[in-house]
Amino acid sequence: MIRWKLPLLLMAILGYLQYSLWYGKNNIYDYQDNVKMLANLHEENNQLKARNEQMFAEINDLQRGVEAIEERARSHLGMVKPNEYYYRIIIDTSSQKR
After folding, report:
1. How far apart (Å, rounded) are the C-alpha atoms in residues 24 and 97?
2. Domain count, the chain
3. What residues make up the domain containing 35?
4. pLDDT tops 70 at residue 89
5. How far, in Å, are 21, 44, 80 from residue 83 at the CA level?
6. Do 62 and 72 contact (CB within 8 A), yes or no?
7. Angle between the 28-64 and 2-23 helix axes, to the nearest 10 degrees?
8. Is 95 within a domain?
9. What are the angstrom distances between the C-alpha of 53 and each of 6, 44, 49, 50, 56?
10. pLDDT number for residue 97
11. Is 33:27 a contact under the CB 8 Å cutoff?
């Protein structure tokens, strides 16, 4: 009588464990989704770290050097030195599209 109950019990336990693994809470699919999400977050974090390092380098350059401040003033504000001429070339894009 025990001979056929033990294998049946073990098969029932194995079936339950397999069901939990594939379809239960925190199943294998959830795990794979979490691994992909974690990889995406690591990539985004690395990009943000690189951007922050670039910003800190620019801040240090602006605090220590006059050349960086001068370049910023020229490109963003259009400032020029005394006895220096600034030419701005504007291309008419409306005539080129026709």
Report:
1. 60
2. 1
3. 2-80
4. yes
5. 77, 47, 8
6. yes
7. 30
8. no
9. 63, 14, 6, 5, 5
10. 59
11. no
Question: 62 and 69 in contact (C-beta within 8 Å)?
Answer: yes
Examine residue 60 and state whether it is found in any structural domain, yes or no: yes
Contact by Cβ (8 Å): 73, 79: yes
Does 90 reside within a domain? no
pTM flag (> 0.90): no
Please say whether the dihedral angle defined by the alpha carbons of residues 5, 6, 11 and 17, taken in this order, is positive or negative. Answer: positive
Does 48 map to a domain? yes
Least confident of 25-29, 32-36, 67-71: 67-71
Residue 43: predicted pLDDT: 97
- For the segment 42-68, what is each residue's pLDDT rounded down to a tens digit? 999 999 999 999 999 888 887 887 777
DSSP H or E segment with residue 11: helix 2-23
